[in-house]
Amino acid sequence: MSASLSRLVRVSAPCLGPGKNRYLHKIRTQVPLSTTRRHCSPPPVKESFLFRLRPCIVSVGYRSVCSVASRTVSSKRYFCVGSSEIERNKMPEAPRPFQRLPRTVKPLHYNLSLVPDFDTFTFKGEESVRIEVNEATDKIVLNAVDLSLVMAQVSGENIAPQNSRNIEMSEADRTATLKFDSPIAKGTHTLDIVFNGQITDEMTGLYRSKYVNEKGQDAYAFVTQFEATDARKCFPCWDEPALKATFDISLVVPKDRVALSNMPIKSEEPKGQLVKYTFETTPIMSTYLVAVVIGEYDYVEDRSSDGVLVRVYTPKGKKEQGLFALEVATKVLPYYKEYFNIAYPLPKIDLIAIADFGAGAMENWGLVTYRETTLLVDPQNTSAASKQNIALVVGHELAHQWFGNLVTMEWWTHLWLNEGYATFVEFLCVNYIFPEYDIWTQFVNDSYIRALELDSLNNSHPIEVPVENPAEIDEIFDEISYNKGASIIRMLHHYIGEEDFRKGMNAYLTKHQYKNTFTEDLWEALGEASKKPVGQVMSTWTQQMGFPQISVSSTPLGEGKGAKLTVAQSKFTADGSLASGDYKWMIPISISTSRNPGKEVVSTVLTERTSEILVPDVKETDWIKVNPGTIGFYRTKYSAEMLMQFVPAITNKTLPPLDRLGLIDDLFAMVKAGHTSTVETLKFLQAFEDETDFNVWLSISNILVRLSQLLGNTPYRNGYEQYTKKLLSKVYARLGWNSRSGETHLDTLLRSLILSRMALLDDDLTIKEARSRVESHVKGDTVLVADLRSACYRTVLRAGGQQEFDTLLKLYRATDLHEEKDRISRSLGSANDVKLLKQVLEFAMSDEVRTQDKVFVIVSASVNCKGRDLAWDFFKDNWPKINKIFKGYLLTRLVKHLTENFTSEERALEVEAFFQEHSAPGTERTVQQAIETIRLNAKWLQRDSAALAAYLT
Question: Which of 494, 505, 600, 838 has its CA 20 to 30 A from that of 409?
Answer without folding.
Answer: 494
